[in-house]
Amino acid sequence: MIFERQYRICNQQSSLQKISGGHDMKKITIVLMLLAFTLQGLEAQESRRERRNIREKEKAEEITKLIDQRNLRFVAQFAHPMAGGSIHLTSEYTLDVAGDSISAWLPFFGRAYSVEYGGRDGGIKFNEKAVSTEWKSEKKGTRAIMEVKAPRDNYRLNLQITAAGYATLDISSNNRQSIRFSGIITKLPEPGGK
User: What is the pLDDT of residues 50-60, one digit of tens each?
Assistant: First the structure.
């Protein structure tokens, strides 16, 4: 009887050690710490996502304002000629829209049907008032169709702008093959600066 009682007491003590002490408590502590770190990581990720959403919303509002004012700059980053692949542009080539005034300083890659004698100016360069402009909202952004009569050629410009500020510009003319540019929309610099 005495031995049986001592056996039960020892058995209860070893059960308590297993539950409350030793390796099990360490495991529980580690699991709780991992859980805390995971929750912190999720909060940080959610915070980054919220900041990105706010930045995207602000950018969309800025682009909408530039479009509404008809005062913007298209900065070409890639040229996509009719023949050949895409060409990464390393210099700054732009199309400026200020009301109905349009200024272009863009390269040209492709076939010219008519060139002036001694003509070395191979790009698309003009600073003219648009003959016609049409701005319309579409599902994925805004499209601007502009026609310009320059001294050497007539141009039809099709500028598609997304809410994120990305854009493509298709240019067709009487004397050259069509060409497409892709790039971004920025604020038109103040006069006197580039």
Answer: 888 888 888 88
